[in-house]
Amino acid sequence: MSWFLNRITWQQQNDVICINTEKDQSLSSSTWGQEDVPKIFAEISCHYEQLSLKSTHEGADRISYEVFWLDSVFWLHFECYSQSIWFEALDATALENITPLYDYLTGNT
Fold this sequence. Notes:
28% of the residues lie in helices and 34% in strands. It contains 4 helices and 6 strands; from the N terminus they run H-E-E-H-E-E-E-E-H-H. It has a 6-stranded antiparallel sheet with strand order 1-2-6-5-4-3.
């Protein structure tokens, strides 16, 4: 699944971090589906070793992973219909760490 991380860039938008789908237009709805999300998450968690899984929540079109990073808890959402992936802060501590998380994901640490 390394094709995935090689084609995306992370983008911070206020209090969320999402993938920038404008980098590679081949990340279309035919590229990944809900059945691919566990493999994509495994690639992300393997590449970004400081992220640790707390829990997984599955819905009709969304899989969300609750992850720890430093002393913060974030949701990592995968929405298949819109082909969206984003980190969301779960509390005030995580909100304070959203920019450091972005820096970690982009190698700006």
